[in-house]
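Suppose you are handed a protein chain with no further information: no name, no annotation, nothing but its sequence. What can you learn? This example shows the usual starting point.
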Amino acid sequence: MASHLKNLSGYDKNKIPSGKGMKIGIVVSEWNDEITEKLKDAAVTTLTENGVNKQDIFINYVPGSFELPLSAKYLIKYTDVDAVICIGCVIQGETRHFDFICEAVSNGIMNLALETHIPVVFGVLTTNNIDQSKERAGGKHGNKGVEAAVTAIKMIALKKKLKN
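A reasonable first move is to predict its three-dimensional structure. Written in structure tokens, the prediction is:
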């Protein structure tokens, strides 16, 4: 479980590589948009604050979290993005639907990254209730959109470093 002192939302800018020249896709689930919009906004702000040009951020919306892996694949196939951030919010309900969606999305995102060698960042909240989601979308646990953006920049920089 995240704690107030253990998250990347309050990251040290000196430890983040410059995002200059990076192209990043963001795929956002429309389901639970009260949460996903806050995550997306924080990701965009963090990317631009760290040198990513706003014109090099490609934002696309999908109906729900289940559609995130395929839409990320579309971005990788049809654009020249260096990374894709998948943003969603799945909240536990009374049925096992939560389990199936979370497993499918996490496996789809990981498999896509391994298949394409492009960082695909898991920015999907999987919480028990709406309050936990709010705590992770700008509340006491920071904003996981910030963490996803920092992860994307760091993973792109790592790939570039290792390729050279």
